[in-house]
Amino acid sequence: SAVxxxxxxxxxxxxxxxxxxxxxxxxxxTMMFWYRQQPGQSLTLIATANQGSEATYESGFVIDKFPIxxxxxxxxxxxxSNMSPEDSSIYLCSVMGGDAPYEQYFGPGTRLTVx
Amino acid sequence: EDKVVQSPLSLVVHEGDTVTLNCxxxxxxxxxxxxxxxxxxxxxxxxxxxxxxxxKKSGRLSSILDKKELFSILxxxxxxxxxxxxxxxxxxxxxxxxxFGTGTSLTVIP
Lengths: 115, 110
Fold this sequence. Notes:
Largest sheet of chain B: 6 strands, mixed
Number of domains of chain A: 1
Oligomer: heterodimer
CATH class of chain B: Mainly Beta
Number of helices of chain A: 0
Mean pLDDT of chain A: 93
């Protein structure tokens, strides 16, 4: 399976600011996803990060709020913009492809608290 | 509408017990069913199942899929306190869309 790292692992941010989360994979993967998991909830897909083109967002998520980049097959960033306390959540990067094309693996996650 | 339903929502057992977690699904163009263990932040991959009736096994954990009845079970034998976690079930379709259940929270008491 791919080894995935995320930075930062946690952060406490003030309302109105933005945070960029980085996701790095140790091998080239076909697909990269960004999820959010709010307290006591299951995972919610934010978007699929597409290499070299705009991300594909799920209903309820927009590019202005969650801009995503994916400059190559091993790296992606998610920015949480103009944060509010409702954005407090765990943000997870996941990947699919490579040696196990249909298995999805998750990064260690970023715990974000907005005050 | 595609969905994944897990039961029970939570479970408390004593060390050494055997538990069975359930996952039922309705997914168009089904490809696979996946089980994850989530302890702190990130879900850890356990199994991916694509064929009916073939058991996947890893140590004390095993899982099987029934594509006719549209469900899967995850069995954990001789439970240990380290098995305490949320177990997530997810399905994927041929369009690479994943659907996650809300999870079963397992607590193993010494």
